[in-house]
Amino acid sequence: MSRRSRKSRSEHDAVEVPSAGQGSDYPRRRTHVEREPHEPMATGYRTSRRSSKSGKKARKTAQSERRRAEVKDRVRRTGTGIARGVAIGLGGAVALVLVLFLVATGINAAARWWAERQAAEEASPEAIKERARENLLIIGTGENQGADFLAVRLDRENDQILGIAIPDGAFMEVPGQGFERVGDSLRAGPDVSLATISNYLSVPFEKYVIVDKATYQSALTDQTLRGMIDAVTESNLEAAELQDIADFADGVSTESVALVPLPVKPISLGDQTFFEPQREEVAELLYSWWGVKVGAEDNMVRVIVYNGAGTPGIAGEAAQELIGAGMRVVDTKNADRFDYGQTLIVVQNGDTAAGERVREVLRVGEVIDQPSDQDVADIIVIIGQDYAPADDGQTEG
User: Fold this and answer.
1) Fewer CB within 10 A of the terminal residue: the chain, N end or C end?
2) How far apart are CA 341 and CA 336, in angstroms?
3) Beta bridge pairs of residue 95
4) Buried b (16+ CB within 10 A) or exposed e, 325-340
5) Which pLDDT band, with edges at 50, 70 and 90, does 167 fall under?
């Protein structure tokens, strides 16, 4: 053995090898994977291979499960968000619809209130008198020639005279007589004629003058009222009022006068010819001259008046008062009997406030609320023996 070998063996023999239970800092070979103390160390090629494959599979499975769980969680959160959003959206939509409904209801209620208030104001005695201030009914009469009517507006603000000529044979509702020739209204007096024309045109007339047929026809032909007042035979105006009208009429040029015939449709019954007024064709004139729209009468209180007292003409007198108060009388006739002691005011359409207004005008009556499907009238009045016309010393309502 060589010296080098002996020396190496001696050095080797001098090295103290620690026993299994002793600690040492001697460098040992380490694997590339740090394992927990409690994990068993797999040994062998096949074991390591199987362990590696199963570990990868387990890790993939776990990763897949985590991803599925994440997806489910996202879907759940998204669904919850969508549901919450839908709920909020639906709630907002419902709230918006409710707000719009309340606003619309409020607007409709306000519109009804305003319309009722306007109707009440327009039906007040002061308002009717103001609207009638410029209006004049000219009545042309002659022996066996009936009566023709010229409904005139004396427009002092614009220095013009506007009028609609209504022929004797035009059929209208005549208070106390029913649906009759307008010319026959004069048989009951000029006040009935005033009520008839006011009722038909929905324009209040309170003043009248009566002239002969020749003067009446000249006014239409010449388109002027000059000189007419000098030919007046009867009127409900004072002399000073007549002179005031004459002065105004004399100062208006013919270019500022428009006296037009009421459009009518001739109807022959036997040897007599009647005329059916075509109110819609004069609609533009009514609106331009008096501010009355066709159909505006639908907003007026419509009344049927029955004579339940048995006194001749008493239903017509009550009708005149109601027309003068801004109501529209659609019919007057006899009741089923004549022994009604108390006037009955039967409200069939609308509220009882209109019935109370009728009672104020007539000064008597019991208001009865009795709704009905008929659409001819709003109120039916049965005149009883307690009613006395205003001309008998009563005060108008």
Assistant:
1) N
2) 14
3) none
4) bbbbbbbbeebeeeeb
5) very high
Query: Where do we find the tokens 């109807």?
Result: 267
Q: What is the mean pLDDT of the chain?
A: 80
Q: How far apart are the first and last CA of the chain?
A: 158
What average pLDDT does range 312-333 have in this prediction? Answer: 92
Residue given tokens 């669904």 in the structure block: 79
> Side chain identity at 37, as an amino acid letter?
P
Distance CA 94, CA 77 (A): 25
Helix axes 190-201, 314-324, angle to 10 degrees: 50
pLDDT at 9: 47
Contact call for residues 318 and 381 (beta carbons, < 8 A): yes
- φ, ψ dihedrals at 4, nearest 5°: -65, -40
Instruction: Answer with the residue of higher pLDDT: 16 or 242.
Output: 242
User: In the block, which residue shows the tokens 């002399």?
Assistant: 239
pLDDT for 280:
79
Contacts of 344 (CB under 8 A, 6+ apart): 308, 365, 366, 368, 380, 381, 382, 384
Helix (H, G, I), strand (E, B), or coil: what is residue 100? helix
Q: Are 328 and 302 a contacting pair, CB within 8 Å?
A: yes
> How far, rounded to the nearest angstrom, does the alpha carbon of residue 258 sit from its chain's CA centroid?
35
Please say whether the beta carbons of 324 and 195 come within 8 A. yes
**Confidence tier at 24 by pLDDT (50, 70, 90):** very low
- Cα dihedral 12, 13, 19, 25, rounded to 10, equals -30
SS3 264: strand
Which of 37-41, 90-94, 388-392 shows the lowest mean pLDDT across its residues?
A: 37-41
Percent of the chain with pLDDT over 90: 48
Q: Comparing C-alpha atoms, which of 279, 306, 152 is closest to residue 220?
A: 152
Which DSSP helix (H) or strand (E) runs through 250? helix 239-250
pLDDT of residue 129: 77
How far is residue 202's CA from residue 292's CA, in Å, rounded to a whole number? Answer: 7
